[in-house]
Amino acid sequence: MREPEQSVVLPEDPAQTELFDHAGHRQRLREYFLNHGMDEMRDYEILELFLFYSIPRQDTRPIARRLLNKFGSLSAVLDANIGEIMTVGGIGRNSACLLKMLPDVARMYMLDKKENKVRLETTDAIRSYLADFFIGKRVECFYILCMDRSCKLLRCTKLGEGEEYNVAVSINKVSLEIAESAASLVVIAHNHPFGMALPSQQDVTLTKNIADLARAMGVSLIDHLIFSADDVFSMANSKKFYKLFFN
Fold it and tell me: I need a labelling partner for 209 at 20 to 30 A (CA). Which of 44, 57, 109, 148 fits?
């Protein structure tokens, strides 16, 4: 389990009394967001605003502060698992579910904006496109990206989701995805959510198996990208692996 980031403990809001104007405060915070967006809002105010919609008749500011005190930052709150979030006082299952939805909504928003507008002609373009699929993921996930010969995206499909340090991938699923998409070019990608962006021996073996499969199907495997929290490794950009699988 990832250790929570260290942070300065925020004091409880002195305004948390039975006389506190909850309705007026909520309205003011909503209006501020509608007029100014979130750029100038503090992390606890953003959390407080979201919690309005799962905690209808309670002051959510101290709950938001408790979340930040426990996890250390807004991103760490949203990356925590649902069980960890529910250990914070005032957070029930509905609120934890709402918070866990936010990274997935952000990822789906970014992917939807790209749909049907994608031509991936460089490693940087492919890396940028695939990065959004791993936002907020705490387990290993495996994707296959299929393109035609002009590098136009045909589809990108998740073929496996596993544990923190392992994901099983069916070669039969890879074969079916290539055949159904009528791909000419293929990229595979997975993440190391808590490790470095370097291939394990299992990753190397899987790449070899998929490279052999693609070659037998008359398709080019052009890269295997491995994403970590803050880095990405391109096996095709490595001389060692390029000669083995991509040449």
Answer: 148
Q: 185-191 and 141-147 as β-strands: parallel, antiparallel, unpaired?
A: antiparallel
Contact 241, 198 (CB under 8 A): no
Do residues 142 and 220 both lie within one domain?
A: yes
Is 137 found in the same domain as 103? no
Dist CA 80 CA 76 (whole Å): 6
Same domain (yes/no): 123, 37:
no
Average pLDDT per block of 10 residues along the chain, 247 residues long:
40 42 81 89 93 90 95 92 94 94 85 69 92 88 94 92 79 95 96 91 94 95 94 93 83
Would you say 159 and 181 are in contact if contact means Cβ atoms under 8 Å apart? no
The structural domain count of the chain equals 2
Using alpha carbons, select from 110, 139, 136, 128 the residue that is nearest to residue 187: 128
**Residue from 185, 189, 77 nearest 129 by CA:** 189
pLDDT of residue 10: 43
64 lies in which domain range?
A: 22-108
Say whether 86 sits in a helix, a strand or coil.
Answer: coil
Question: What are 158's two structure tokens?
Answer: 């998740």
Question: What CA–CA distances, in Å, run from 180 to 144, 157, 173, 174, 188?
Answer: 12, 12, 10, 10, 16
Q: Whats the size of the chain, residue-wise? A: 247
Q: What is the pLDDT of residue 22?
A: 64
Q: What is the structure's pLDDT at 164? A: 64
Burial of 8 (0-12, 13-18, 19+ CB in 10 A): exposed
Q: Same domain, yes or no, for 97 and 126?
A: no
CATH of the domain at 38: 1.10.150.20
